[in-house]
Amino acid sequence: MRRRIAALMLLPLVLAACGEKKNALTPSAGSVQNVTVMLDWFPNADHVGLYQALAQGGFSRAGLDVHVQVPSDPSTPLQLLAAGKIDFAISYEPEVMLARDQDEPLVSVAAIVQQPLTSIVSIGSKHITAPAQLRGKRVGDAGIPYQHAYLMTILAHAGVPASSVKEINVGDNLVPAMLSGRVDATLGAYWNYEAIQLAQMGKRPNVIRMDQVGVPTYDELVLVVRASELTDHIDVVRRFVQALARGYESVRRNPGAAVANLVRANPSLDSKLQLASVKATLPAFFPSQAGQPWGYQDQTQWNLYGQWMLSNHLVSNPNAVVDASTNEVLAGQGV
């Protein structure tokens, strides 16, 4: 993200029921549902499918009048969602579990970006291409507890003493901290965004991905609702999610046109950076296994990542992990 093991080896896998589902995605004539969705941060390439669905009328054809809000900081969306102020929030798998650990009844209903984007990034002149090379270095992050846990996990996995690495909280200034020489590398920059930005600046960035150096894989970006919505308004949730899925399918068919719509809605964005980011992220927008619908969440993966959070004392309640995600509203899923 830009932003606590109790033994859990026997944690049950809570698999969403699967089966062919006849989804009524077209509402009755004249029925329009107002829906508010809050982004995780500023609009960017990760949200391209949302803006594509808006531009192509995908939500309106599903009977939804969708309003997009941008948060003041990444902690806001889940807070407002839990308070009933918004209908959907885009957030991060670890943040969902942190919220549930505080007894917030929130559930992830779709994975938007199905791989970790958070990485250790450095500019080429630092020659940091593997965790072992962090020994004696300064590593910046945003001061988020689970990013600290990522770093400790990575160093332990590589046999590097934690005392040999200086961790510095640089807040949101990940790229400036690298360019100024304040830090040698950052943990928290995204391989599909800041690393591409540095490459376009000619800085030859090196990228070390979390899930390749000891951190369990997870879904970086997810769509979250209140659990009550899955009983009270599941038809609205299903229509929104599947219209969003069609938006991302459209991005896959024509990334350039989709980026044009993203930038048209958000003129301050650099179209060159957004296009490069979308193209780099395309595989992560979709499940790795054939036959799985857009948004699919691997329950085994969620449980393993939850075990890691428990073992690192980031969450303390095993119920934060159980039922944290569902595939019920995805195309062809549910009962």
The rough form would be described as globular
Give the CATH level 1 class of the largest domain: Alpha Beta
- Which fold does the CATH topology of the largest domain refer to? D-Maltodextrin-Binding Protein, domain 2
Number of helices: 12
CATH architecture of the largest domain: 3-Layer(aba) Sandwich
Helix and strand string, N-terminal first? EHHEHEHEEEHEHEHEEHHHHH
Account of the protein in words:
- This protein is of the alpha/beta class and 335 residues long.
- The chain has 2 domains: 184 residues, D-Maltodextrin-Binding Protein, domain 2, CATH 3.40.190.10; 95 residues, Periplasmic binding protein-like II (D-Maltodextrin-Binding Protein, domain 2, 3-Layer(aba) Sandwich).
- It contains 12 helices and 10 strands.
- Strands 2-1-3-10-4 form a 5-stranded mixed beta sheet, with helices on both faces. Strands 7-6-8-5-9 form a 5-stranded mixed beta sheet, with helices on both faces.
- The longest helix is centred in the last third of the chain and has 20 residues.
- It is globular, with a radius of gyration of 20 Å.
- The two termini are 33 Å apart.
- The N terminus is likely disordered.
Give structural attributes.
alpha/beta; 5-stranded mixed β-sheet; disordered N terminus; 16% strand; D-Maltodextrin-Binding Protein, domain 2; globular; 335 residues; single chain
SSE blueprint:
Elements: E1 33-38, H1 48-55, H2 58-61, E2 64-69, H3 76-82, E3 88-91, H4 93-101, E4 106-113, E5 118-122, E6 138-141, H5 145-158, E7 166-169, H6 174-180, E8 185-190, H7 194-200, E9 206-209, E10 221-226, H8 229-232, H9 234-253, H10 255-265, H11 271-281, H12 299-311
Parallel strand pairs: 1-2, 1-3, 6-7, 6-8
Antiparallel strand pairs: 3-10, 4-10, 5-8, 5-9
